Amino acid sequence: MAVSWKPRGRWAVPAVSGLLIVGSAATAAVFGAGVASNALMLAAAVAAGSPIAVHAVRALGTRVIGIDLLVTVASVGAVVIGQYWEAAAVTFLFAVGHALEQATLSRTRSALAELVAVAPDVAVVQRAGGQIEVAAADVAIGETVVVKNGAKVPVDGEITAGVGAVDQASITGESIPVEKAIGDQVFAGTVSRGGVLQVRATGVGADTTLARIIHRVEEAQDAKARTQRFMDRFSRWYTPGIIVLAVVAGALTGDVVLALTLLVIGCPGAMVISIPVSIVVGIGRAAKDGILIKGGEHLERAAKITAVAVDKTGTLTRGRPLLTDVVVLDPEADRTAVLRWAALAEAGSEHPLARPVLDAARAEGLTGEFPEAAESIPGKGITATSEGRHVLVGNVALLSHIGIADNRGSDRVAHDLAAAGRTPMIVAVDGVVLGVLAVADEVRPDAAHMVAELHRAGVRTVVMLTGDALPVARAVGAATGADEVRAGLLPQDKHDAVRELQRQGHVVAMVGDGVNDAPALAVADVGVAMGAAGSAVALETADIALMADDLRRLPEAIRLARRTVATMRQNIAVALATVALLLLGVLLGGVTMSVGMLVHEVSVLVVILNAMRLLRRRAQPSAAPAAPAAIVRQPEPAAA
Q: DSSP secondary structure string, 311-356?
């Protein structure tokens, strides 16, 4: 029976070639240089050079003249002129460098490997009155999955029973487990850290957030940046140019060794890998931090951002109005009475501002009751009858509409609250003003920190765009430290604001989370979606998706993009400097083929190790510069 053996693994070829080189040296030392030692050295060159030659031929088949062709021609030429050691050394070193490059690139893709590793294999499903274990991919939409303490969540879904903490680091990059309760969303690949959860499956298999992230990261790491495409075009001319240079040098000097040496030292190994390795590491580092970057081109563009336009509602603010003030104006009333009567009236309202009033009343133990009758007055407020009394909640215009005298100064209080960025609501019972409530969309606690970090990261201008009223916008702008506030904007106005920033010479990132942001997101140089873990659309359409609902990720993404581009430039400089120094060395004498290849492989390692520095987190400075006063603008009225 014939037995065939083929080297396996990335280190097999260099190992076989290296052993043959050692065997040749040992043979020469014992028996003297001769046919046996030369045969072993030739075998070493063939063992290491054959895969290189195969790659070169395949590349030629697609009309690509690459680095493999240079090494193949140089090593074959060295064998023809009897330079067996040079042929073996060049091919062995190239094989070692290729194996090191593969090993290091595999490590740089660790973020993708980690995402794949967290993908759950099994799920515990409630079926036929009991719990059974099935493959995660076999769970059907709508089925209930049981997730116990320490288990991976196998599907995207909504919690229908149970409470507990869930580690979402693999999806959102959050380091602290998040408390989850009924109605909350969970993602496949996250881990329960306490409690037993019942989850109704809304996404399974390839339809989960984790699967979409893996797909996007894989695509992004393979996507070429603009600089990389330029380098590819450059190498298509560079490699044939080196071959022509070697032929001309050999013809003019009659020195074949010189020509072959020029072929070896002209290998653009470090240049070829300088860009892709940086992109792979940069995008991988971002994915670990819950920042999904669509590809190398978007990474490069993010490094140039000079202005950030931010939507207010749901981005700088939570998008959920809260009761902020209860001002009592009637000496015979108290805070509880004002809030109770307001809640009684608002229980019959469908207006969005009714919810924060009802929530506040419920939190203070004022049980919900429905009015006997209620009537909404568009643009003014609501009137209701409860417990035989007539209750009014609305603005100053509603008082005038009903004919209630403002003898308690509610107009002035409402004006002051509105100037502070809140929405006032006057409460009156049986024609007597009791007080004024105010609600406001809560500013995120990390919004001001995000703006300061953007400035520190090199962003010159942070502009807040909102369709909200000017007083509200001005208050949020002051609280966050935005450089400029533009209020009363329609979707087209936001689009025009981004265009204006671009005309001023800015590279603009637009951060938004709503449909009304779509025109501005589309026209911006970089579109950024926040809280994208829960949105399949954001994952597919945004140039940068912040998986967690965390503003601090944006300056992190910009810093990482700038570090990645800086690393790309450093790597290109290393590659070009290596070729220039080796050419100088050949002209001055002293650089052989084997020395040239050794220096090349060292430069490849330097380039890879330099890129891998991106995997380290960089400490952020603690002090933030003082924010300048915001410039406030409203859209110009349309021409008649």
A: EIIIIIEEEEEEEEEEEE--TT--HHHHHHHHHHHHTT--STTHHH
Q: Which residue has the higher pLDDT, 182 or 529?
A: 182
Q: Which residue has the tokens 């050394």?
A: 89
Average pLDDT, the chain: 79
Rounded CA separation 333/328 (Å): 7
Give the Cα separation of 325 and 426 in Å (integer): 11
Give the tens place of pLDDT for each residue, 529-546: 877 554 555 555 678 888
d(CA 72, CA 38): 19
Helix (H) or strand (E) holding 473: helix 470-480
| pLDDT number for residue 174 | 54
Q: Determine which helix (DSSP H) or strand (DSSP E) holds 267, and give its type and residue range.
A: none
From 141, 142, 123, select the one nearest 133 (Cα to Cα).
123
- 3-state SS of 131-165 is EEEEEHHHCCCCCEEEECCCCECCCEEEEEECCEE
Tokens found for residue 245: 């240079």
Burial of 105 (0-12, 13-18, 19+ CB in 10 A): middle
Q: Read off the pLDDT of residues 121-141 as tens digits, 9 standing for 90 and up.
A: 788 898 877 888 888 888 889
Q: What is the DSSP letter of 431?
A: T
Rounded CA separation 509/244 (Å): 46
Q: Among this protein's residues, is 549 annotated catalytic?
A: no
In the structure, what pLDDT confidence band is assigned to residue 290 with cuts at 50, 70 and 90?
confident
How many helices and strands in the chain, by DSSP H and E?
22, 23
Segment 371-391 mean pLDDT:
84
Report the C-alpha gap between 485 and 503 in whole angstroms: 18
Q: Six-digit token pair at 640?
A: 């008649």
Residue 219 pLDDT level (bands cut at 50, 70, 90): low
Which residue ranges form the domains of the chain, and what is each CATH number?
A: 121-212 (2.70.150.10), 285-312+444-558+628-633 (3.40.50.1000), 318-443 (3.40.1110.10)
pLDDT at 462 over 90: yes
Q: Is 150 left (phi over 0), alpha (psi -120 to 50) or beta?
A: left
CA distance 184 to 163: 10
Are the C-beta atoms of 55 and 231 separated by less than 8 Å? no
CB–CB of 446/316 below 8 Å?
no
Which pLDDT belongs to residue 3?
A: 38
Which backbone phi and psi does 127 adopt, to 5 degrees?
-140, 145
d(CA 435, CA 495): 41
The SS3 call for residue 7 is coil
- Is 38 strand, coil or helix? helix
407-448 residue pLDDT tens:
788 888 888 888 777 888 899 998 889 999 988 878 888 889
Percent of the chain with pLDDT over 70: 81
Single-letter amino acid, residue 44: A
Instruction: Using DSSP bridges, classify how beta strands 317-328 and 432-443 pair: parallel, antiparallel or unpaired.
Output: antiparallel
CA 134 to the chain's CA centroid = 33
Residue type, 274: S
Give the gyration radius of the chain's Cα atoms.
Answer: 34
Nearest CA to 583 out of 604, 569, 600 is that of 600
The set of residues, in sequence order, having a beta carbon less than 8 Å from that of 513 and lying 6+ positions away, is: 311, 314, 315, 319, 529, 530, 531, 538
Contact 125, 170 (CB under 8 A): no
Q: What 3-state class would DSSP assign to 130?
A: strand
Spatial separation of the C-alpha atoms in residues 422 and 190, rounded to whole Å: 38
The active-site residue out of 68, 156, 289, 311 is: 311
